[in-house]
Amino acid sequence: MKKRDVYMENKKLIYIADDDFSIREALKAFLESAGYEVEDFETGDSLLKAFEQKHADLVISDVMMPGSSGFMICRDIRGFSNVPIIMLTSRDSELDYQIAMELGSDDFFTKPASPMNIVSRVKAIFRRMEYERERYVSKEEPDGVVCTEEDKIFLSEMSHELRTPLMSIKSYAEGIKQGIMEAEGASDTILEATDRLTEIVDDIFNRFSTQKGE
Fold first, then answer.
1. Does residue 113 belong to any structural domain of this protein?
2. What is the pTM of this model?
3. Beta pairing partners, 37
4. Which residues of 50-59 are buried (b: 16+ CB within 10 A; e: fewer)?
5. What's the Cα-to-Cα distance from 93 to each of 22, 89, 143, rounded to whole Å?
6. Element (H, E) at 179
7. The domain containing residue 209 runs over which residues?
8. Per residue of the chain (214 residues), what is the pLDDT tens digit?
9. Does 69 map to a domain?
10. Residue range 37-96, pLDDT digits in tens
11. CATH label of the domain that carries residue 139
12. Are the C-beta atoms of 106 and 125 separated by less than 8 Å?
């Protein structure tokens, strides 16, 4: 049997929020064609309400919408979920980019954005998540390594926690390289993300070094 990408074995659910019907329909068509289940919403508030009832595997949200902005929706979702979030905006603004990254967005596209490029990014995100899952939650451990189910869950959660500061550093570095960000303005955020990475690594080290000493 030919091996398939595991991330496509179980159909992923994607939520889209954008007050522009044509954009929602175009994204939905391309994503469904790629094999995803898609639900679209005219406002971020309706997406958030649906997400609270049933979590999606990925969220795509416009920034400027009636009611709560995409930034507010991103902040609210980040309060209880590490689901990947892609932000869309019609404003070519460095400030929008910075805010989105600081709130925990995984990626940021300026309209008009190619639906094919967005689908490619979605696939890349799911591939990375599946890699993390296989790496940290696999039932096959190397000889001599004892990893309990609780350890596996902990490591899986930490892998998702690592994603936000890593993506923040990567996005700011790319912004500086492309000349859309000033290095001086991004340095504080990069340092904060680095501090968060250090905290997460310390948590992992402390957990397993304590177990080793028991």
1. yes
2. 0.63
3. 13
4. ebeeeebbbb
5. 23, 9, 52
6. none
7. 6-213
8. 334 444 444 689 999 999 999 999 999 999 999 999 999 999 999 999 999 999 999 999 999 999 999 999 998 898 888 889 999 988 777 777 878 888 888 888 888 888 899 999 899 888 887 776 666 555 454 554 556 667 666 666 666 666 666 766 766 676 676 666 666 666 777 777 777 777 777 777 676 665 545 4
9. yes
10. 999 999 999 999 999 999 999 999 999 999 999 999 998 898 888 889 999 988 777 777
11. 3.40.50.2300
12. yes
**Could you give the number of structural domains in the chain?**
1
DSSP H stretches of helix in 38-137: 44-53, 70-78, 94-102, 115-137
Look at residue 1 and tell me if it is in a domain.
no
- How many residues would you count in the chain? 214
Take residue 38 and report the two structure tokens written for it: 């898609």
**Residue closest to 106 by CA, chosen among 31, 47, 164:** 164
Q: Is residue 120 part of a domain?
A: yes
Residue with tokens 């009611």: 67
The helices-and-strands tally (H runs, E runs) of the chain is: 7, 5
